Amino acid sequence: MIKRSRIKLLFVLIIVILAIFFINFVFNQAEEGTKTENKVLEDKLDERGIIKSEVAEKIIEDKARTVINTISLKDFSKLAGYIHPEKGLRFTPYTHVQVAKDIVFRKNQVRDFFEDETKYFWGHYDGTGKDIKLTPAEYYEEFIYSEDFINAEEIGYNEVLSSGNMLENQFEVYEQPIIVEYYFSGFEPKYAGMDWKSLRLVFEKHENSWKLTGIIHNQWTI
Fold first, then answer.
1. How many CB atoms lie within 10 A of CB 218?
2. Beta-carbon count within 10 A of 216 CB
3. Could you tell me the keywords of this UniProt record (predicted)?
4. What is the pLDDT along the chain (222 residues), one digit of tens a residue?
């Protein structure tokens, strides 16, 4: 009986040792995996913690090209399929994103964008301070596709090509975004570049896909 008890005890000890070994193995593998993931993430981010421009371009170039083409064609029923299902699409008339004030449309509102005759309050005009009260179609002409951005002079991926005297805060407002900027440096020589304009498309990752969450219009402001 004593011998049998010892055998059982030895068997239990072996099981415990094997369990401890297995747990340590799994833990070490998980730790190595985390280190690898962190290293990969670090390689993708710049010193500001933003996805590097060259990485962002590889990730989003094709989708951004499709989206800007869809916008240029006013095909917002198709555009709705690219909208973030939870956050919707935020419209910013000038570069500074105002989370509490900027209008956010849901997918169904984007789908019916050009059929909506409601005059919304989108913010204030720079310089005059007057209310921007426009239908979505009117807003599109003034603060979305105000130029032929699909043929922009420059395209930037997570890099600011245009800047005025407004605070640039898009990388703080949006969560680890990829922002594609379509930029014209100017149109009339007599304005010496003060008539520059740009359009920024903001993408955020949702599950395993990048979704459009913001459209930021930018131009020279007083």
1. 27
2. 26
3. Membrane, Transmembrane, Transmembrane helix
4. 555 666 666 666 677 676 666 666 555 554 444 333 334 445 799 988 999 999 999 999 999 999 999 999 999 999 999 999 999 999 999 999 999 999 999 999 999 999 999 999 999 999 899 999 999 999 999 999 999 999 999 999 999 998 777 788 999 999 999 999 999 999 999 988 889 999 999 999 999 999 999 999 999 887
CB 171 within 8 A of CB 139: no
Amino acid, res. 22: F
3-state percent helix, strand, coil for the chain, nearest multiple of 5:
45, 25, 30
Which residues lie closer than 8 Å to 163 by C-beta, 6 or more apart?
95
Give the integer Cα–Cα distance in Å for 55 and 43.
Answer: 9
Is residue 146 within 8 Å of residue 125, measured between CB atoms? no
Q: Can you give the pTM of this predicted structure?
A: 0.80
The answer to whether 162 touches 179, Cβ cutoff 8 Å, is no
DSSP 98: -
